Every structure is written in structure tokens, then in C-alpha cells.
Model the fold of this input.
Amino acid sequence: MKTKRLWITAALLLSFALLIRFFSANAMRVEQYYSNGIYPYISAILKFFTGLFSFSVGDVLYGLLFLWLLWQFIILIKAIIHKKITIDNLKKGLAKTCITFLLLYIIFNVCWGINYNRKGIAFQLGIVKEKYSQQELKNINALLLQKVNESKTALLHTDLHDSDDYKMIFSRSTAAYQEVAKTYPFLGSSSIVVKRSMYGWLGNYLNFSGYYDPFSGEAQVNTTVPYFLQPYTTCHEIAHQLGYAKENEANFVGYLAAAASTDTLFHYSVYLELFIYSNQNLYQLDSSAARSFSKQLLPPVKADIRQWRNFDNSHRNPVEPAISWLYGKYLESNQQPSGVLSYDEVTGFIIAYYKKFGKI
Done:
């Protein structure tokens, strides 16, 4: 009888999951009723509770989950050894597994995941993201090159005695969003919760500099990566917290915030990464032109890029390609057919933004 109740529960959860899929099929409906309707309230509730703690609540929960899964695995192995596995136990186990995955799917989507299906930032700004020409790509490389060199020059004359203070970056990221909200009110938020990832050391080997936890509502940042990367990463993760789930959109919203900041370090951080993205895009079409732009970077900028590259190379490992592949499949299943290359697509947003507003 208990097994039957488990399968009835699984069927009810499956029905709710299908209802979520039906609701998510209409982007305008998602934009109006979820992203700008119920989601801000859900996010506010999560941030209220997790914001009470200085440490990452989500990371603690993930750690406890890992220990629980490990314990369940040990129990399973013991049952197999002592031949305590029965058909009824297998049916119950399968039902419980289905219920667990369905619950995770529902909670993930209700708390944040439905945002993958929204109209998004291009709709809100009234810009048209379309295929760009090679000349437009060269023009944006030239503009970003100028921005990178100018911000680095200004940064060299700035006192960076607090350059190891990640809390300063988190604080100024919040200020950056307050600033950009003056122009784009929909990018404002009553509260922003950013936490230092407890697993930064692991992130270095799995190639992530930040992530958003939809179950706790926390924006997580790996503070062990080179310091000049952290401002843009933080703005990117806050964009996820605001409901911009797709990576190219989070990159673009992160750009809007970092560019609006009064902090030169934020300008350098965002323009450097955007230049790298656009230069890689150009390299695929005209490698000679891409190299020409790269050669014009100031020596201190090239030194930062070498530091970045050396940091990545020092953490290469056999597991990283598999993790990247799995993450790419996750992105593909959530309205991002380019997979991990979705991050690079921010270039299209930048070009469309420049064509409409004449600035970057």
C-alpha cells in the first residue's frame, strides 16, 4: 500500500511539472506573470532568510546533501552485500527516486528556473539582437580595445591597497546596480545578497568563477580567481539573482551594471572580458584582424591576461572537460542551444546596444 501511495505522489508531482512546462511555453506570459510578477517576491523571501547569515547557506546545504548521498550509497552497498534487496524495495526505491527528482525540478523552476523562458533584457531595452557583420565586429573590437586601455591607464593611478578585499567588491557591485537602476529601473532590487563561495578551490579545477544558487537565492563568487576578474563576475551573478537566467543575458546585464559603476576597477574588469569575448568571435572570422587588435593592448593589460591564463593552466585537470560537457548539456536543455559558448553571445547584445544607443 505504501508503494502505491508513493507512485500516486509521483504522478501528482509529474502533473505539476507538466503544468510548469505548459506555463513556460509562452515567453510573454513568463515575463509578465513570473519574472515581473511572482519571482521578485520569491527572491525577496529567499534573500531575507539567507541574508541573515554571513556565510553561504546554499554551500552548507550542498555539503550536507553530499554527505547524505554518501550515507545512502553506503546503505545501498550494505544491502547488496547482505542480499536485502527485494522487488518491493526496488519499487519503493524507484518511486522515491522519481519523487526526489520531480521535487527538485519543481522547486528549481518555481524558485528561479522559469526565468530561462522569459522575453528578457533585449525585450526590456527594445534592442534587436541579430546576426552582425564582420565590420561591425571589428568596430566593437576597436571600441572595447580603447575602453580596456583607458580604464587600465586610469587604474594604474588608483590606490589599490584594498585589492584583496572581496567584501569591497560585493559592496560596490550593489552600488553599481543602484546606479544603473537610475537609468533602467527594472534592474533595481530592494536587496542584493552576494556570498563568498566555500568551494572556490574546487571551482578553480572545475572552471567556474561564480554561480547562482536558485534554492537559497544567493549569488556566489569564487574569490580565489585573479582580483581584476571578480567585479564583472559579481555583477554577472547578481544579474542571475535579478532573474536573468541565460548566460548571455547575465553577461550583458552584468556589463550594464559594471559600466554604470563609478569604480574604475569595475570598468576595467568588464571591458577586459568583453574584449576577450569579441576578439575570440573576430578570430573565427579574421584571425589576422583579431591578432592586430590584441597586439594594441597595453603591456600591463597583456600582463593581466598572462596571469589569467597561467592561473587557468595551473588548475587544468582531466575532469574539467567532462564537467564542461555536462554543464553545456544543462545549458542546452534550458533555452541555450550554444551550450557553454552562450557566454560568448554577449557580443551580439553589445553590438545591438551600440547600434541603438551609440555607446558602450
